[in-house]
Write a structure and sequence with these properties.
Length: about 140
């Protein structure tokens, strides 16, 4: 298993950050691992909703089939997906309002036999991607 996380304070209200975070038509503008949604983003943002995403991790393309596991508007979005080589990926976005600013935390987890072979590199690459994504997200909403 490889666990990753990143956190940043964004100088915008949680609702504004949430709107950008869940605007799947512009996901690639801030999410540094995202390459495309082959069938479009989620049709409905609801628990149990599914979508496919093409990503790039450690320079390698990967298609992940996501399911929305937890959703609280302007607070939490948790998704779990199945990727190549039986790797399971979990991502949780948590927004903590602080007046006119928001702390955004992203937690990720990778599990599966293939992960143990490259856990260190995967952790470093994914952590860097999370920090870059938060930097870009902050730039889009402030």
């Amino acid at each position: 298993m490889a666990e990753v996380s990143a956190e940043a304070r964004i100088e915008a209200p949680a609702e504004k950050v949430w709107d950008r975070l869940t605007d799947f038509s512009s996901y690639g503008e801030w999410n540094s691992t995202h390459t495309s949604f082959p069938k479009g983003g989620p049709q409905k943002l609801e628990v149990g909703g599914t979508f496919e995403e093409n990503m790039r991790l450690m320079g390698f393309p990967a298609e992940v089939n996501w399911t929305i596991e937890e959703l609280e508007t302007a607070r939490t979005l948790a998704i779990r997906g199945k990727g190549p080589m039986a790797v399971v990926v979990s991502t949780r976005y948590t927004l903590i309002p602080e007046g006119d600013a928001t702390t955004v935390r992203i937690d990720g987890e990778f599990t599966g036999a293939a992960v143990s072979l490259m856990a260190g590199k995967l952790k470093d690459s994914a952590t860097a991607a999370l920090h870059e994504s938060l930097r870009k997200l902050g730039g889009l909403v402030t």
